[in-house]
Amino acid sequence: MLKKLISAARRAEKAELVLKNATYTDVFNGVLRKGDVAITCGKIVGVGEYDGIEEIDLSGFTLLPGYIDGHVHIESSQLSPEEFASLVVPRGTTAVIADPHEITNVCGMAGCEYIATASKNVPLDVWLQLPSCVPATPFETSGATLSGEDIQNNVNNAYVFGLGEFMNYPGVVNCNDDVLKKLQAAHAAGKIIDGHAPSLSGADLNAYLCGGISTDHECVSGAEIEEKISKGMYVHIRHGSSTKNLGNARFITRENSRRFILCTDDRHAVDLKEKGHIDDALRHMVNDYGVDPITAVRCATLNASECYGLKWRGGIAPFYAADLVAVDNLKDFNARLVIKDGKIVAKDGKALFSAARYLPQAVLNTVRLKKPLCAEDFKLPLKGNRAKVITLEPGSIVTGCQIAQVASQNGDVDIKGTDILKLAVVERHKLTGNIGKGLIKGYGFKGGAMGLTVSHDSHNIILLGDDNAAMAAAGNALRETGGGMVIAETGGALHTLALDIGGLMSSRSAEEYIKDSRALLQKAYSMGVNSGYEAFMSLAFLSLAVIPELKLLDTGLFDVSKFTFTDIEA
What predicted TM-score, i.e. pTM, was given to this entire model? Predict the structure, then answer.
């Protein structure tokens, strides 16, 4: 192959494909250049003047390196890896750093292996991070546990690229033995370790970084970004569906710009289809936050490549992988042509590939209840009239804790006429019968219950409602469908959307799933869900016990700031 590449590069033979008259980004010098881009054997062999066996005129377009998503959970698209690729590749994404944390929490290593195998069928590089914190905390019931020994036994698997986001930052800082075993295993295997350390600073941040952790996607302020970059970290700018900090783009300067990476983390299928992927982040960075277009492109390409050690990727230069996207301009970033390994894989927003679906039995039928749920299961007796209530903010997964006056009647809280709803987390993996119960304010939903089997990070059933019987009906419906999303109206009407893969993803086509998902979302908003929230995905983060302040687990109400359980009584 080298002889062929060198011969094409020096024009001794024609390149297989030449992109003629291209205006292309030189991400190394930060400028635009003009010329032909020659490709052979899936590699760029030269830029300048070339003739090709096949030629495509790119006059009027701008050629960029293919985008790299620096941190994503494919499962959060609620699509199979094959269908996920069908949406992101036509947008210009040619590689993702994927952490299968969600399905591994449900199915263990079988879930991790599923993502790895299914991803082989598509023209998208999926660099898989072995989930580091399964479960995210020891206080909840997950479908699987990956101990330090499990990490040691699996980190050298051929499909494992690195160690996924290390959410258990208290375990790192306090030198938990099992945590150290995981970190040491990654280092011994020469694998990069992703971080997750919201608001960590000072000596605790120093201690966390001494675990050999390289990145963070949870920054909330300019001061936090400055400190983390000053201490050698790469900072992800995140543009997800529920988790967003794209405003951090305003902290990019000429001096620190090489330490920023773009990621989506959690991006729903509807948003991928209607708004885009990394291309949408680029649009907003340039148009809303005034980031220089080439600087923004660097964040999506070369910076990510250098952070993760992806050699010969992220740039347009000889011997670099021919992973490219031609866009209409550096303002709208509409992808007109996408090339992966020298092959045209998408054109004008349409995928030019299809992949056979891989669907092993190990990731199906994962919703198990000890017994059918009934209305009595959702009674919430209080001794007094003051209770801790979860509050949340639009566009954020950080929750608050508010003390509210709550009446009781017949051994149950009475929430009629208030903006308070019941919240419940029902264990669905180990047949424990656990049901954690709490209250939430401001979600807006009325007239029944809604719920889903996507609830970070252990993915038990999470339900919200103002009707005990409807909450029971919603939970039972999720068991019947094998997982998914549901709305149960008071009076009996059910609206369901199956997520048959681990209770997290649909095995159907993206088009079919998006149509039904959109209809269910509209139903939720019609029943009063606050328009500032992602109707279901905001609900999915209310059990995430590594993001402050008050969360609900299957085992009870949890104070993340104190990292311990708390009584609902106030």
Answer: 0.93
